[in-house]
Specification:
Distance between the termini: 74 Å
Shape: globular
Number of helices: 14
Oligomer: single chain
Strand content: 15-25%
Structural class: alpha/beta
Helix content: 25-40%
Strand order of the largest sheet: 1-5-6-7-4
Low-confidence stretches: none
Radius of gyration: 24 Å
Number of strands: 17
Mean pLDDT: 90
Length: 392
Amino acid sequence: MASLERNKIYIDKEALSALSLVQEGLLYPVNKLMRQDEMQEVNASGLYKNYSFPCPFILSPSGRRNQEVLSKVKKGETLDIVSEDKIVGMITADEIYKIDKLQRLEKIMGGDLSTQEAVFTLQRLGDYAISGEFNVVFDDIRVAKEALQSKIKLLGAKKITGVMMSAKPFHRAHERMLREELDHCDLLVIFLLKPYKKDLMDFHLREKCMQYIANHFLIKDKICIIALDDTYLFAGQNKMILHAIVAKNYGCTKLIVGQNTPNLSIYYTDNERHSIFDRLQGVEIETQIISEYVYCAYCKMLVSKSTCPHGYHHHTNYNTHSILQLLRVGILPPSILMREQISAMILSSFFPNRFENLERLYYDLVPSEGILNNRDEEEFYVKLMQLYQIYR
């Protein structure tokens, strides 16, 4: 039994996803696990083969069993890669070396080590790294890549814009940004971020909302929605650089980012805006930072904050955290913030079977055609929002 355990290393699904990104060429020019000398070079320069790459791509799994195996494995030995009690691939050892875990953490996080995310990341780092040829099975990324390439070929798309979104929740400013970009590209790729930690608004609900918007309010044939695993790699300031690399390798020619996106490191000199993208080297993708949108009570419309002449006291902001707080406590956000259909989807998911007698509420509050139909809570929220809008 002990000899069999020596032929295995154990990783979580985040590490498996990261390995699959490399295997599918989505972190190019990185196409393998880095040796110690390559790790040191990337640590010192932030470059790999003259391309921006903010942190070394290495595999250093934590856990007592992994440390025992990696401390004894020999060059040329083949190990099974195990995730969630299943063999998901194999790796042939080329080099085993010790790492400085705090230095590794600093490079992953791109700076701040005081966050909860940094504490979690440190816990998943082991003392040893392994490099070598590997092969893993993780079909989600391969299938997504093939689906996008098929759509690009079908449309003959040349101008392909990518946007990374949590859409938690999806609001009117998000829709405005996507709608305007559709006017300038052949294909819009929405990378919907999929974290591995538990969240109030889970990925499937956000995907449902996004798909509804694409199908009903945007040009759906020009949109491709792709789940992008939001792993430990995409942390801190590194996130922006790695997102640009992933978008480029998926086939995008442009990446748009909202001005309020964390870790952009925006600053101004001589009235010129700078950001973390100024450090991007070798990655041939256009980047555009989209100005913040607000609802102006004076203009009576959604406007760019940078072009609206009216003061902040006329502006309603689209703060995702605050809108989510309303939904968290069961309040329908005003329709200038979110489409009622999206609010309804979220509230009916957050509060299933909320009303004791839904049919009675329909009968008492909502105009009807006198026909008895089975009603659901999602539809009720939409009707309720429409009542809010009758009188102003």
